[in-house]
């Protein structure tokens, strides 16, 4: 009988200790869960604050980049016309279209692919006055105009400038086999342009020390499109090839998802 009581007491004590242990463990788990929730909430708040500051910085930085872009473009256009005064009458009509675009449309955050391509074609016409009528200049457009995104404001203005101006500035304009090729495409919601030219040995392709260079252009694309663009530049023998692709469909999807 005594032994049975001792066994029962031992079982009771063991059960009580187990219960206390479970309760303590449960309290600890609840405490850790609450602390984890607080930590996550704090982390989310910090991330939101960081994103807010990052967005403000990117906006200011982008405005600074764009403020450098327009005067630089104006200077190059006026230099082209001034150095070829005999063709100025023809260029004035194209110049008017280009200036309207720079002064008005380019002040918007986005333009349509149609508007940017029309602007780029006018810019090419202005640059043509630098070269001989016999120079081989090929300009092609491959456009899916039925794509709804072709008329939607999703493309950053003046994205075509850097590739076009570099081609005319650094191309070999003297040798008989020199050429510049410019191809604009819009297909499946993707804007792309490919510029190819023979490089002049007298004027090696390199970024200018002043003005708006290729690094500034790419930095602007990174701020706006992040991973939704691809810019490739390479040289094959004496041929320079630059290709830009911007996936506007993917970019729009992410914009809508972000609210």
UniProtKB/TrEMBL annotation:
Give the InterPro entries listed for this entry: Bact_2-comp_sensor_kinase (IPR050640), Sig_transdc_His_kin_internal (IPR010559)
Q: Indicate the segments forming the Signal transduction histidine kinase internal region domain, all copies.
A: 61-131
Q: Which GO terms describe its cellular component?
A: membrane
What is the organism field in this record? Taishania pollutisoli
Q: Name one GO molecular function term.
A: phosphorelay sensor kinase activity
Q: Which domain of life is it from?
A: Bacteria
Recorded hits in Pfam families, A to Z, give: His_kinase
Provide this UniProt record's keywords sorted from A to Z: Kinase, Membrane, Transferase, Transmembrane, Transmembrane helix
Supply the name of the protein. Answer: Histidine kinase
Q: Which residues cross the membrane?
A: 12-34
Q: Which residues form a coiled coil?
A: none
């Amino acid at each position: 009988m005594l032994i049975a009581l001792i066994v029962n007491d031992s079982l009771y004590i063991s059960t009580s200790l187990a219960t206390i242990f479970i309760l303590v463990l449960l309290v600890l788990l609840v405490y850790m869960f609450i602390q984890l929730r607080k930590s996550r909430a704090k982390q989310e708040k910090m991330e939101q604050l960081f994103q807010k500051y990052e967005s403000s910085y990117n906006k200011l930085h982008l405005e600074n980049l764009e403020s450098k872009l327009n005067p630089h473009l104006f200077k190059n256009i006026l230099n082209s016309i001034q150095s070829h005064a005999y063709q100025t009458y023809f260029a004035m009509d194209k110049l008017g279209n280009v200036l309207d675009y720079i002064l008005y449309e380019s002040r918007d955050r986005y333009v349509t692919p149609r508007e940017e391509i029309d602007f780029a074609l006018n810019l090419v016409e202005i640059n043509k006055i630098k070269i001989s009528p016999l120079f081989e200049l090929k300009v092609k457009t491959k456009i899916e105009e039925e794509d709804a995104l072709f008329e939607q404001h999703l493309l950053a203005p003046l994205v075509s400038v850097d590739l076009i101006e570099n081609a005319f500035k650094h191309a070999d304009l003297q040798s008989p086999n020199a050429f510049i090729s410019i191809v604009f495409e819009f297909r499946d919601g993707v804007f792309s342009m490919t510029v190819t030219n023979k490089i002049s040995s007298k004027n090696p392709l390199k970024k200018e020390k002043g003005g708006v260079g290729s690094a500034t252009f790419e930095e602007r694309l990174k701020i706006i499109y992040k991973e939704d663009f691809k810019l490739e530049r390479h040289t094959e023998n004496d041929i320079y090839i630059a290709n830009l692709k911007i996936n506007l469909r993917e970019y729009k999807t992410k914009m809508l998802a972000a609210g």
